[in-house]
Amino acid sequence: MAGDDAKGHRARLRERFLNGGADALHDYEILEMALFAANPRGDTKPLAKRLIKQFGSLNAAVSADPARLGAVDGMGEASVAAVKLIQVAAHRMLRSVAMDGDVISSWQALIDYCRVAMADERTEQFRILFLDVKNRLIADEVQQRGTVDHTPVYPREVVKRALELHASAIIMVHNHPSGDPTPSRADIAMTKQVRDAAATVGVDLHDHLVIGRAGHESFRSLGLL
Question: Are 48 and 31 spatial neighbours (Cβ–Cβ below 8 Å)?
Answer without folding.
Answer: yes
